[in-house]
Amino acid sequence: MEQRESNQYWEVFETKVRSLTERQQRIIAYKFCLLAEKDLDDLGKGALRLVEQLTSGHVSLQDCESYREQLQNRLPDEETSAYSPLIWALTPHTAAYPAWYSAAIVGLNIVDLGISTFPELTDLTKGILDNF
Description:
Elements: H1 2-17, H2 22-34, H3 42-54, H4 61-73, H5 83-89, H6 99-112, H7 118-130
Helix pairs in contact: 1-7, 2-3, 2-5, 2-6, 3-4, 4-5, 5-6
């Protein structure tokens, strides 16, 4: 069952989210990160504000790198933490890691944290898409 749900989630990202603008893809990542907001400390909340600013494109690459580094240094070994979605949301858009893929990984982290399920995130993504 979970494999089918995961496949449906990825299908939405590969067929619908992939063709959006980087800004729209980052909005999806930000909405996913909001689901983990209650589990964030001050560093995480600062990173969340930066992710929000990324949705409007008014953030320096240095600021993103600085926060990503700080978050990575505080990650527990071999575990997903509330920092994990933020790290992916702050990942620069590159050919290797396009923003749509990073946004999808943010969602995987949210599922791994037990905050949401694939069907819930798929529905949330479709709702966000309907507003674009």
